[in-house]
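Exercise 7b. Backbone tokens:
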């Protein structure tokens, strides 16, 4: 390891800080919760299954008995659940240093959320858009707070289509198109959020991260396919452990040197694995018009208005 590789050893003391990790019970979210708890933060694991969340918390407490982790229910496919989560959080907390929008699903067959949104756009983008907007009050109240959105290299093949943003009734749907659109949306949202913070003089920054290719539960549902089963040993060899894959989002969340709009990813070949550095997204992720249109559509769809 080169001496300048960023690892969890670089994380400053987080005592007194509050962090929310969506999807904190599994994969990269779980590794992030561990790292923040290790450094003394109060970590809220926002999970769609409280049972899974409590099980994950138990695992962490085995080796970090003093960790301050609280499990709260959050289902990003249900705006009512997102509202309940935000309400319950705000009832008990007046500040939030880091909101890590990590939860996600990948390349699932066409289905819709409780509110009728295509499920990948609904979970990966719209659920987090609504959550962030509903937590804005506490984010604003917390000097130097951060919102970190977890994107993917899949954003590079993402295409926005504002005439059919949510693949209405499955029109034009492909599981890869919807995933890459949702991951491009994560970046467009990050940059528009930062513009919103600046315009409204809010002392918070928006950043993004991607984990390269990491071994998690994200593709478990694909393993049922025969060709994925056949390729599994090769795939596993290519992937890096979740503990390494989580470093870009951990760094974006807590590195004191990190700046607004930065996008962290692995430093290895094709950004597939390695230690976290600032990387460049595709230029389309910085497109102002797409970001604006996505914001307007997201406010309309979720009825969460940023102010
Ligand atoms: N792994 C990679 O190589 C890779 C590459 C690029 C980007 N990413 C991104 O990394 C993020 C984390 O994924 P991961 O790889 O760590 O996968 P993972 O192990 O499957 O974890 C995903 C987490 O999201 C949660 N989640 C899914 N749907 C949810 C919903 N409706 N409401 C609340 N939580 C929900 C899952 O909950 P359950 O446990 O209940 O399912 C789980 O906790 C995702 O945004 C993904 O797009 C991963």
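Sequence design result:
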């Amino acid at each position: 390891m080169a001496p300048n590789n960023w690892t969890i050893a670089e994380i400053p003391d987080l005592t007194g800080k509050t962090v929310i990790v969506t999807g904190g019970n599994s994969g990269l979210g779980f590794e992030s919760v561990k790292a923040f708890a290790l450094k003394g933060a109060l970590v809220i694991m926002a999970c769609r299954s409280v049972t899974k969340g409590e099980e994950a918390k138990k695992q962490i407490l085995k080796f970090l008995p003093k960790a301050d982790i609280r499990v709260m229910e959050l289902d990003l496919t249900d705006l009512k659940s997102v509202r309940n989560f935000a309400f319950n959080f705000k009832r008990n907390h007046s500040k939030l240093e880091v909101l890590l929008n990590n939860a996600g699903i990948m390349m699932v067959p066409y289905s819709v959320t409780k509110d009728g949104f295509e499920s990948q756009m609904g979970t990966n983008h719209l659920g987090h858009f609504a959550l962030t907007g509903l937590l804005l009050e506490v984010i604003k109240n917390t000097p130097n707070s951060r919102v970190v959105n977890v994107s993917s290299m899949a954003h590079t093949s993402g295409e926005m289509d504002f005439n059919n943003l949510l693949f209405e009734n499955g029109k034009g749907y492909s599981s890869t198109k919807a995933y890459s659109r949702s991951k491009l949306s994560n970046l467009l949202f990050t940059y528009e959020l930062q513009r919103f913070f600046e315009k409204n003089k809010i002392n918070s920054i928006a950043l993004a991260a991607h984990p390269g290719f990491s071994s998690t539960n994200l593709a478990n549902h694909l393993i049922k396919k025969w060709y994925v089963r056949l390729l599994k040993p090769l795939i596993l060899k290519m992937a890096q452990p979740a503990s390494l894959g989580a470093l870009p989002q951990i760094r974006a969340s807590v590195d004191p040197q990190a700046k607004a709009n930065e996008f962290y990813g692995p430093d290895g070949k094709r950004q597939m694995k390695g230690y976290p550095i600032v990387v460049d997204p595709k230029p389309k992720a910085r497109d102002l018009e797409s970001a604006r249109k996505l914001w307007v559509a997201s406010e309309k769809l979720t009825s969460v208005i940023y102010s």
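Instructor comment: The longest strand covers residues 42-47. The chain has one domain: 8-302.
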